[in-house]
Amino acid sequence: MNKFQEMQAFTAVVDNGSFVAAADALKASKAAVSRQVADLEQRLGTRLLNRTTRKLSLTDEGQLFYIRCTDLLYGLAEAESELSQRSGEPSGHLRINAPVTFGISHLAPLWGRFLQQHPKVSMEVSLSDRTVDLVEDGFDLAVRISRAPHPTFIARKLTTTTMVLCASPGYLKQHGTPERPQDLADHNVVSYTYWSSKDEWEFTGPGGKKDVVRTWPRLHANSGDTCIAAALQDQGIVMQPDFLVHDALRDGRLVPLLEGYRTTELGVYAIYTSRRQLPLKLRFLIDFLVDAFQNPAWRSEE
Q1: Dihedral (CA of 249, 255, 261, 264) sign
Q2: What's the pTM value of the predicted model, to 2 decimals?
Q3: For 243-253, what is the mean pLDDT?
Q4: Which of 36, 62, 159, 200 shows a CA-CA span of 20 to 30 A to 214?
């Protein structure tokens, strides 16, 4: 077994926390990964991993060797990236994380086109509304919707989205229409769990004055789709991004509220880790996404 495969198996076990998970990541059998690590330890004449029935941990020698291995493997990846960039054709595997609703509605239609343009690239797309750790979870890129990107990462803005306050005609018929932000305190609202300001909704009036209203949600949900579904069933007022409510507003199923007040504008960002050299496959993907969102679908009819 060559040294590269042994190092690759060893680092995969450490990164994934078990031989089974490492085998899945490497698309190999658990027996093969175990044999490669055992052969490596035998060749080096030292134990690299402490094995118990519950967990694995690095020995002191294993910790030192792991650092050296990751440096070598990263250097090899960089060398391959340099050659790929010289050829001008991206190749390799990309792992991408994105919010659920945005990922389904506005990113999913793009992946096939990107893969068709770059046949040597493969992709794994993971959808989650929680904030993932790009390094810890092994993602090359995340699409995030926020006021501002985290300063520890590099961010490329793809587009913007504006929060829209709205409700169904049925709800407004039953409960009346709010005329100012403070009126929301007396209304049923449906709130998105991951909204950074929680249940305090912020508005800017015509004169530039900011109003922050404490709402009392009847329903909390960690899914924007669930919030919209509840609003369509006359359960309360929602504040959701325009890319999510655009169709319902156009069809009259939802009605915009407090249009004289400005709500929060968020950026849609492509986030990636700082690297000395951006792999060609990732650079092509970022450029592709920037171009794809020059005229977002939810604004195309405005």
Answers
A1: negative
A2: 0.69
A3: 94
A4: 159
